[in-house]
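This protein record is not my work; I was only asked to verify it. Where you disagree with what is written, explain briefly why. This is what I was given:
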Amino acid sequence: MQDGWQQLVYEMQLATARDVAMVLPLPTAEDESPQLEFISLSEYPDFFRDLDRCFPAPAPVAVSAAVAASAGGNVKVIPVGSFNASFLPSQRDFDRLDPRFRLNRDILAVLPQYARYSFAIFQLRSGEHQIHPMALRFRTRDSTTLFFPTLHVHDAAIHESAHFDHELYAQGGFGADWVRGAHAPRSTMDFGNFLVADRTRGLVQPDAAVFKGTLFGELPNVDHWVRCFGERTG
């Protein structure tokens, strides 16, 4: 968290016979100022591998674009590394998105918590492959918490519980049963030098502690929030 902006990085393995989209709901600030910035980590596919090296002991189970809210016309598509991304300021903007990637209106109707959310859309190509991390910054409406979009929607259905196999990492906050990394990121990640650019693109603080939480097994199908213990302002 920095000056009301939360950084969010997401990685997954994909196996699909058709092009699909990853839809991430975001509790953005509710005004007309720029809300989101996509960040390409195509040059750092090992971002999470290196981040996890902060935890040597077993733990519990170059493109960016600022986006402002807009109305009318087609949704802007922004190349971000190996995929395309779009920002939807509100639910009604799904009508301006490619029909292949729209979230079903019936799904949105049973998710009232997203009524005033924005949405980041990552268009993913068909096939079986590891996707380089998807990254963004968004201006949050609540700078006292970190938001993790973990609610599962599969096959146009939402269930009360879902199978989770997630590892969550955070700086500036942590949840119950999270563990603290034994090393600072400076010793495990590539922050560059005076000749080479920071491969984390400013998403990680080199000397701040990293905390890790694990979600595994059949769990309530909800998003997760982590209370911040202090906001970095510089």
User: Anything to note?
Assistant: DSSP finds two helices and 15 strands in the chain. The mean pLDDT is 83.
